[in-house]
Amino acid sequence: xxxxxxxxxxxxxxxxxxxxxxxxxxxxxxxxxxxxxxxxxxxxxxxxxxxxxxxxxxxxxxxxxxxxxxxxxxxxxxxxxxxxxxxxxxxxxxxxxxxxxxxxxxxxxxxxxxxxxxxxxxxxxxxxxxxxxxxxxxxxxxxxxxxxxxxxxxxxxxxxxxxxxxxxxxxxxxxxxxxxxxx
Length: 183
Description:
There is one protein chain. By secondary structure, the chain is mainly beta. Helices cover 5% and strands 37% of the residues.
């Protein structure tokens, strides 16, 4: 496994009558997956309503971020899109359900746009980042770009913010990422 690949991780949960225990990050163990990053920042996001969509976000070099995402309350459909020019999977997406119950994590490498939609009310995610937040490096592509055709589990229009509503489509966007670089 290379550090520039999307990876779904299923940490072991040790359950008993009290609940469960799970190791959610161990640098030594994650290094075996090819994730040997120096995480420098943790973020915590709460979305109140079902259908809240956040994304598709990234940070451009030199402040590009890899992310290790997990849901600690509720449920989300978490999505990453390859936006690395020259990549054999350019413009392809993958999505996974991350829930408090399943404990799964998604590693989103540098060069991928990331977003999610909430499947339950009061959904919270926590994610580790490989670089610090840099507002001038922020980028967004359209969550509903027909070139990408993400199959969001929607029953109505999503709740989005103004930034996501005016994001560029992939065809109007000049990616700052090159396949084999920026990782």
